[in-house]
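User: Can you predict the 3D structure for this chain?
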Amino acid sequence: MAEAADAPADIIVLGSGLARPQSDAAYDNVVIDRARLTGDASGKVENVLADVAGLQQFRRSDSRSANPSAQGLTLRALGGNASSRTLVLLDGVPIVDPFFGYVPFNALSADRLSEVRVTRGGGTGAFGVGALSGTIELVSAGRSELPPVSASAFYGSFDSVQLAATAAPDVGKGYVAVSGRYDRSDGFYTTPDSQRVSATARARYRDWSTAIRAVAPIDELTELQTSVSVLRDNRTLRFQGADSSTSGEDASVRLIHRGDWAVDAVGYVQVRNFTNKVISATSFRLSLDQRDTPALGVGGKIELRPPVGDRHMLRVGADFRRSSGELFEDSYNATTGALTLRRNAGGNQTTAGLFAEDEWTLGDLILTGGGRVDRWSIDDGFLRERTAAGVLSTNNSYANHDGTRATGRVGAHWQIAPIVAVRAAAYTGFRLPTLNELYRPFVVFPITTQANADLKMERLRGAEAGIDLTPLPGVALNVTAFTNRLEDAIANVTVATNTRRRMNVDAIVAKGIEASASVKQGPFSLVASYAFNASRVHASGVAAGLDGFIPAQSPRQNVAATVAWAPTGGPSLSATVRHIGKQYEDDLQTDVLRAVTTVDGVATLPLGHKLTLVGRVENMANVHVVTRNAGGSMDYGTPRTFWIGVKYGG
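Assistant: Here is the predicted structure, written as structure tokens:
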């Protein structure tokens, strides 16, 4: 996964953003191209992201068998958290849920994307809040990558179906891309054979998404990009009646001007909702109905690049984001089925920042540095609880919090020889607790995790150094060493039997090595990634018992590799191996998720007339991927799964 070369400055790709700064090379970057995005055995974007060793969701399961609210992403073993500790952008727009902070993976379809760029390490310019462990930038496919019509249809194990189609006609001097995707399955059993009961259910899912993206040139240097997307997602997990649903409607408008005073301006709105029913693992009756969680996110940014000479690229601008949401949930007596409590809680969160960053080119040396100042606030937080009779039993209004935070980053990249470059960077960053962490408790039987309205922000300091080698044409090697300290890290801390509480621990300190390699020789290619993480919790006070422990959901080692044989115009074969090291389910290191290695495979056969036959298999060896272990109560991830289908289009 070597760094892709930037396009020449005089080539403008319709539908793209501004040219990437050369100074990106100072940081630990990995680029996943369109061929890899659309060539994974699962057909799921989140599994392709796992090619970047060390990048993981809160749990090992993907969006077919995970609770949507647990789909947070993190890097560098900074501790598993259902809220993302990475900044995730689609065409420059943050896409995480405004209330929960998770990534709506089922709204992302690989055929709509051009590439994904993962930058490991904190700190960034625009929309920099939340970039603690890294930044993931997803880029929509442009005019040159979208045929007029493309489609795919797959049928798989467990009566599974994946359908996708895109129409991208030219309209005037621009184009419109209209796409849709539908996925369904009867699902597999996540519960081990020995733990199944009459109420055990397969991990069924049914979701669809649609997106419309229009790109219209205003003049030779200016274009307008508009996007609208809709998501509906329904899942059943573990027990009959344990149903969840997600809905989302997102819209954005982006103006790109590539003149002497380059401009990138964007505004967006996100409307989301989430429901979830918790079934008792003893009575198998409804115990909690999280019946409504409406959330709204609005924001925007403007970035200017004034002409400051050939040696400099200066970026200045401002950005804004406001999130609001609340939950409505009902608790039931799991034995009698009687309603016991109604809960309503929520609040608002706002960040507004100014940023500036400059890169300075001195021959083979590129220096970069920048900073941002953010004004933040958390306000109107509340918790109200009523008895089954409607009597108000709890009425808490939480104090507002606000402040100003300055962060920054510096880096250098030196091409010391044609085949050798070295780089170094240092950075700071912060993340506010999400509305979910502040106000919403949750249950994953038998564990109840309490919210905490007094959570403080997380603050990161980090540094890294690396070397990039290109010893032969088509061969690239990269190694990075890093150290990160996440202060006031938010963790789920055990406070009583089967009870945890979200709390700030003193710090999580993570150190490690990341390495990647890519080889491209004719039809043969190999892409590999390895991460070694040594992270520890530093804790005192109530959480002192965690001091020196490994953070929950943080494996020490990750490996991913894909080898492919893909001659032009002929059949192709590829195999992907992924290894996740041992990790702990809980903060006390009592429940182990053992190490696991999986192998996936994909084969294609061109049939002519733009039609291709595709066979895919996930988890060839059918190994048990343990995704949850609570005192021996376990869930498994995707078993061996076969797919057969066809693709049409260029």
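The radius of gyration is 24 Å. Helices lie at 34-37, 45-49, 435-439.
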